[in-house]
TrEMBL record:
Name of the molecule in the record: Betaine-aldehyde dehydrogenase
Active-site residues annotated for this sequence: E250
This protein's pathway: Amine and polyamine biosynthesis; betaine biosynthesis via choline pathway; betaine from betaine aldehyde: step 1/1
Start and end residues of each Aldehyde dehydrogenase domain: 12-477
E.C. numbers: 1.2.1.8
GO BP annotations, alphabetical order: glycine betaine biosynthetic process from choline
Length: 491
């Protein structure tokens, strides 16, 4: 049994209340760890430590190349511990071990990327309109950052925040999801090993409504970066208004995958499956909303059904498994409710829509890969984020119709389309209102390119150069080399 505590001001500490929480493996409901369960006071103490480290410590004033070297070193430690971290992630989330390994490779690269980027900004010189003067823009670290992450990609989403914040010279208080804290705790141990000064990296554990809300509300926090659901994101935004802290939000998505009749059929088909069933559909950018041009509809549905029947559902540690369990009983209930409503609204259930019957899957939160046809734009299952292994198929006849429908939700995270027509590629890329648009591909993200949502899918961008800039304030420094009295108020 793993036992873990919080990390505050360079010390591993229990919750002040002494409370702990059992962490469950969603594949079999076994208790895998006992971790400290912090409260608001634990959050306050961590914020105070981060505040001291920022205001009085060396970190924000450490030369950027030295900060970058430490961030890079953390990437090397993640690479060294790849297998252990991947195993922890699979234990905690149920995703297949191979998917967890991909995450760890990605994460090591994120730290190395931001480590390298830390000293690349030399400021900017502005052409001043005033004679004998200079005008310079410099970027400085924002300050103390609260970083709240979700359960579906626990360490990946934490790293998108941690690496650029540290590279920029900020101090951080991380709060992983209370149900999947293990890899965030492990990377905190690695940050300690790398040698980050006390108070620069802090990790608090516990419920969002307590520990997370304190981070969002605290006047001592300068920036809150949140990844999670829209409802919680709005709460965070409201809470942050108290001291007008900077807010970065990565929220949910309803991501259309649009297949035109001239698409490369086999590849598009394969990416419909990849787009939804990786991590059992628990991906913000899951392409669960499949829109297919009418002439291709029947062929696609038939081929999809054949492929879906062959998906092996099972424990993420079994190398044959291609899809693990859902994260919790509550989350599976939510997916089931969406499936029931879809049927009531007239969608046609082709496959799945139930828990698997196999004996060896009874202890986990498994759900069968599910396929609906006959879906329409007004259905709840088409408009809302299900976050489960459920595909809805809609037919369309014209490009304009596909665009209008794809854009018709409150979300704007990502969208993809498949066609060989170069003119259509240009038109569609412009018309789709999403933070990421994939052309003849789906669900691709990498460290070098920014990620974030239009509309209610979020605020700000993570990754790439913009991901670093989120953690900086821009200061304009103006110097007059030949100042003279103005005498407006008399000499
Ligand atoms: N846009 C992206 O890049 C991205 C990436 C991953 C996940 N997501 C989204 O995350 C959601 C799934 O994650 P989830 O179920 O963990 O989300 P959630 O909103 O329930 O929780 C996210 C985090 O917020 C904390 N929290 C809960 N209440 C809080 C409060 N009042 N104040 C502060 N923090 C609070 C939780 O403890 C958790 O750490 C999905 O909607 C998914 O689309 C988005
Ligand atoms: C952003 N991404 C795709 C890594 C995970 C979303 O849940």
């Amino acid at each position: 049994m793993i036992e873990k505590r919080m990390y505050v001001d360079g010390q591993w500490v229990d919750a002040r209340s002494g409370k702990t929480r059992s962490i469950i493996n969603p594949a079999n409901q076994e208790v895998i760890a006992e971790v400290a369960e912090g409260g608001r006071e634990d959050s306050r103490v961590a914020i105070a430590a981060a505040r001291r480290a920022f205001d009085q410590g060396d970190w924000p004033r450490t030369p950027a190349n030295e900060r970058g070297a430490l961030v890079y070193r953390l990437g090397e430690l993640v690479a060294r511990e790849r297998e252990e971290l991947a195993r922890l992630e699979t234990l905690d989330t149920g995703k297949t071990l191979e998917e967890s390994r991909w995450d760890m490779d990605d994460i090591a690269g994120i730290f190395k990327y931001y480590g390298g980027l830390a000293d690349k900004d030399g400021g900017e010189s502005i052409a001043s309109p005033v004679p004998d003067s200079s005008s310079t823009l410099v970027r400085e670290p924002v300050g103390v950052c609260g970083q709240i992450s979700p359960w579906n990609y626990p360490l990946l989403q934490a790293s998108w925040k941690m690496a650029p914040a540290l590279a920029a010279g900020c101090t951080i208080v991380m709060k992983p999801s209370e149900i999947t804290p293990l890899t965030t705790i492990r990377i905190t141990e690695l940050a300690q090993e790398a040698g980050f000064p006390a108070g620069v990296v802090n990790t608090v554990l516990g419920e969002g409504a307590e520990v997370g809300a304190e981070l969002a509300e605290s006047p001592q926090v300068d920036l809150i970066s949140f990844t999670g659901g829209i409802t919680t994101g709005k709460q965070v935004m409201r809470a942050a208004s108290g001291n007008v802290k900077k807010v970065a939000l990565e929220l949910g998505g309803k991501n259309p995958n649009i297949i035109f009749a001239d698409a490369d059929f086999d590849t598009a088909l394969d990416y419909v499956l990849n787009g939804v069933f990786f991590h059992a559909g628990q991906i913000c950018s899951a392409g669960a909303r499949v829109m297919v041009e009418e002439p291709l509809h029947d062929r696609l549905v038939e081929a999809l059904a054949q492929r879906i029947k062959r998906i092996v559902v099972g424990d993420g540690f079994n190398p044959d498994s291609r899809m693990g369990p859902l994260i919790s009983a509550e989350h599976r209930d939510k997916v089931e409710r969406y499936v029931e409503v879809a049927q009531r609204e007239g969608a046609n259930l082709v496959l799945g829509g139930r828990r698997p019957e196999a004996d060896h899957l009874q202890d986990g939160f498994y759900y069968e890969p599910t396929l609906f046809t006959g879906c329409s734009n007004d259905m709840k299952i088409v408009q809302e984020e299900v976050f489960g292994p459920v595909i809805t198929i809609e037919k369309f006849s014209t490009e304009d119709e596909a665009v209008a429908r794809a854009n018709s939700t409150i979300y704007g995270l990502s969208a993809g389309f498949w066609t060989r027509d170069p003119d259509r590629i240009q038109r569609m890329s412009r018309a789709l209102r999403f933070g990421t648009v994939w052309v003849n591909d789906f669900n691709v993200y990498f460290t070098q390119a920014p990620w974030g949502g239009y509309k209610q899918s979020g605020l700000g961008r993570e990754l790439g150069k913009m991901g670093l800039e989120e953690y900086t304030e821009v200061k304009h420094v103006y110097q007059n080399f030949n100042a003279k009295p103005l005498n407006w108020f008399g000499a």
